[in-house]
Write a structure and sequence with these properties.
Strands 1, 2, 3, 4, 5, 6, 7, 8, 9, 10, 11, 12 and 13 form a 13-stranded mixed beta sheet that branches. The longest helix has 17 residues. This protein is an alpha+beta fold.
């Protein structure tokens, strides 16, 4: 079994079927989150043409005069992908992954697993798996009529019909002509939610997304000349995703997001997507308002899980203790974060 970490891995994706990968595993996507402190890389494990890929963001840590590392998967979803159903290979790959990170002087690693790929299995053998929250996905393999009647909740259908009656219009903006307006809407929405700085992105991020993520488009809902809501949608093979979204709070009574997600589902279906993933709520509470909103588009739920790996427990504990002593005002806010010492 061979293993190595590389900064270029798209060629290895050619060994995978479309159902076993997603846009989150491509170099272009992971590199969106590279910074001067975090580098996009991928661990490749191979055994006789059986592959496991594990893209992540590597961060260098200077700890007591020596260089160590930690990692986390990029915003969105990650974890391992395999080009085989061989359970023995999968289990051995996860053990190999752990050993590689120990050998390469990693202290800890944080994973956001992919709900549609259900790829958190075996990680409980090397670390902690947290079943965090449920997510929603619309089954686009159904006919458009069946999606409307069987996936979309009755009250949601009435809201969507009312939005159309009120003159709301959905636009597929493949050229990102409305990009500046979208960014402004997105940032104002995050401000309204008092979101963590994690959810804000620099101009470079938006430029790279527009130029490098080819299977994407902006969805815009307008009423006359006013933009009511906008979102970025991704797709890769059978999977589509609702990425970032923003709304003008003055017009929420028109329900622009209901219309946007339904029209985006139809657009993605035309592009060959079979499963349109909407994500989950802002918390694990099943009464979370965002989760309840998304659940009106489908009854199908998927498990979003987190992985917490510690490779050098002694180093990790010292690092956290030193951070807590230096940042007493942040201690409570980040107490449940594995990589709390980053903040």
């Amino acid at each position: 079994m061979k293993s190595f970490i590389t900064t270029h891995w798209n060629n290895y994706l050619l060994f995978f079927q479309a159902k076993d990968i997603d846009i989150y595993y491509k170099e272009e996507y992971v590199s969106l989150y590279s910074t001067d402190k975090e580098q996009s890389v991928c661990l490749v494990i191979e055994d006789e043409k059986k592959y496991m890929l594990f893209p992540f963001l590597r961060r260098k840590i200077l700890f007591h005069g020596r260089i160590f590392y930690d990692f986390e998967t990029a915003y969105g979803y990650g974890g391992p992908i395999f080009n085989t159903d061989d359970e023995t290979f999968k289990r051995n790959s996860i053990k190999c992954l752990f050993n590689v990170f120990v050998k390469e002087n990693y202290i800890a690693g944080f994973i956001r697993f992919h709900p549609l790929l259900n790829n958190y299995h075996y990680f409980s053998e090397i670390g902690q798996v947290v079943l965090d929250r449920k997510t929603i996905a619309i089954d686009l393999s159904l006919s458009e009529e069946d999606i409307w009647m069987n996936e979309i909740h009755t009250k949601n259908r009435n809201v969507i019909k009312k939005a159309i009656k009120n003159g709301l219009q959905f636009i597929v903006d493949e050229n990102y002509n409305y990009y500046d307006q979208f960014i402004e809407l997105y940032n104002s929405t995050m401000d309204k939610l008092q979101a963590d700085k994690f959810y804000y992105f620099p101009p470079l991020y938006y430029n790279q997304l527009k130029n490098n993520i080819k299977n994407s488009f902006l969805g815009i809902v307008k009423k006359e000349d006013e933009i009511l809501s906008a979102a970025i949608f991704f797709y890769s093979g059978p999977y589509g995703h609702y990425h970032l979204s923003g709304s003008n709070k003055k017009y929420l009574s028109f329900s622009p997001n209901n219309l946007m997600l339904y029209e985006a589902a139809k657009e993605l279906k035309q592009r060959g997507v079979l499963l349109f993933h909407l994500g989950g709520g802002i918390s694990s509470d099943e009464n979370d308002s965002l989760f309840c909103f998304k659940s009106r588009f489908s009854k199908s739920t998927y498990q979003f899980a987190l992985g917490k790996l510690i490779f050098k427990p002694t180093h990790y504990n010292i690092l956290c203790k030193e951070w807590e002593n230096e940042n007493p005002n942040k201690k409570d806010k980040y107490k449940n974060f594995l990589l709390k010492y980053k903040y």
